Amino acid sequence: MQLSSRTRHGARLLMNLAHFSQKGPLRAAHLSNNIGISIKYLEKIIKPLRQAGLIKGLRGPGGGYFLCRAPEDITLGEIVLALDGGPQLSCCAAPDACLPSDFCGSPALWADLTSTLQGKLNSITLGGMMRQDSIFKVTPSARKPKADVHRRDTAQAA
User: Fold this and answer.
1) How confident is the model at residue 139 (pLDDT cuts 50, 70, 90)?
2) Residue 11 and residue 76 in contact, taking contact as beta carbons nearer than 8 Å
3) What is the pLDDT of residues 34-89, one digit of tens each?
4) Domain range 5-85+125-137, CATH architecture
5) Torsion over CA of 67, 69, 45 and 14, rounded to 10 degrees?
């Protein structure tokens, strides 16, 4: 199974919202530029994410998009469900959709595999994805020193 480009871009969009959340809502143009997709395509991704309650938008000056929940509370399963209707391993996973279902024992197998995959997707959080993604990792050397520590060092040197 390969995740759709819509789901992959949706995950990147959510990671950007989480990463830059301290700066307030992010505008569509900023997200579009960061993800590398057109604003028109971005809007097609934003709509189902809003409908699923994963993001919200604010209009007007200072407006933009932001996450509705913490990154640790959003799963890849929710993202796939919102953007693609859930994982689809085979049309045979739905007994009504499989034409030779009277002669084939595979609908139960496909349904079980789909359920297992959905469980795995639900165990992967947006926060976990960000920790695995080198773009969003913050290494200890990249962190700024605390202001009070810097002042103590300066005071001791004087």
Assistant:
1) very low
2) yes
3) 999 999 999 999 999 999 999 999 998 889 999 999 999 999 999 999 999 887 77
4) Orthogonal Bundle (1.10)
5) 70
The closest alpha carbon to 31, from 55, 2, 52, belongs to 55
Q: What is the pLDDT of residue 104?
A: 62
Q: How far apart are CA 130 and CA 140, in angstroms?
A: 16
Two tokens, residue 94: 């739905």
The whole model's pTM is what? 0.75
Compute the distance between CA of residue 14 and CA of residue 26 in angstroms, rounded to an integer.
11
- The full set of domain ranges for the chain reads 5-85+125-137
Q: Which helix (H) or strand (E) is 67 found in, with range?
A: strand 64-67
Residue 6, CA distances (Å) to 80, 141, 144, 154 in order: 9, 34, 35, 51
